[in-house]
Amino acid sequence: MLNHNITRHIEALVFSSSQSIGMQEIILALNAVFNEEFTETQVFESIEQIKEKYSHDDFAIELVFLNNGYQFLTKKDYHETVNQLQLHRSKKKLSQAAMETLAIIAYRQPITKLEIEQIRGVNSDYSVQRLLEKELISIDGKAETPGRPILYSTSTLFMDYFGLNNLNQLPQLKDIVKEENTVGENVE
C-alpha cells in the first residue's frame, strides 16, 4: 500500500470528483491504475489519513462522508465567506417556483408533473425543466397510471447540494413551523 502511496491517489480522486465518490468507485480506479486488488480496509485507512490531514486549522476544507461517498467541503467556519460568493452568482439561484417544485418532489417522490401541479396549483413545466437542467432532479421511470406519465425524484446531486446522506434527514414540518406562525391558542 505505501509503495504506491494510494492516499495521494485517493485524495486526487475525491478532489477531482464533482460529486461524492463512493468506496467502490475509488477501489475500481485504484485497481485499474495499479493492477492489483485493493481492499475496503486499505482504502478506508487512507481515507482516515486524509481526514486527519484536513482536520487541522491550516486547511479551509475537510473530507466528509456524504451520500454514501466522500467529498471535500468547506469547513463551517468559512460558510459565510463562501455564501457571499454564492450570492454574487445569483444566476445559478433557484427561483421561488423552482424551490417549491423541488420541495414537493423531495417530500413526495416519486411524483408526476400533474401531481406537482395539483399541489402548487399552477403549471410547473418550466420549473421541472430547470431542475432537470441543474441535475437536482432526475427521471425515475413511468407511473403505472393511464398515459404512463414520467415520475420525478431528487438526484444524488440534490443530496450533495443539501448535505444529506439520506432522505430521512430532510426537515420535518414540525421542525419548520414556528409557533408565531400558528393561528389560535395552543390548548393541551
From TrEMBL:
Gene3D superfamilies associated with the record: Winged helix-like DNA-binding domain superfamily/Winged helix DNA-binding domain
InterPro entries per UniProt: ScpB_csome_segregation, WH-like_DNA-bd_sf, WH_DNA-bd_sf
One biological process term in Gene Ontology: cell division
Keywords, alphabetical: Cell cycle, Cell division, Chromosome partition, Cytoplasm
Residue ranges of the TM segments: none
One Pfam family of this chain: SMC_ScpB
Coiled-coil zones: none
NCBIfam families for this protein: SMC-Scp complex subunit ScpB
Protein name, entry field: SMC-Scp complex subunit ScpB
Organism of this sequence: Pedobacter kyonggii
Lineage: Bacteria, Pseudomonadati, Bacteroidota, Sphingobacteriia, Sphingobacteriales
Protein encoded by which gene: scpB
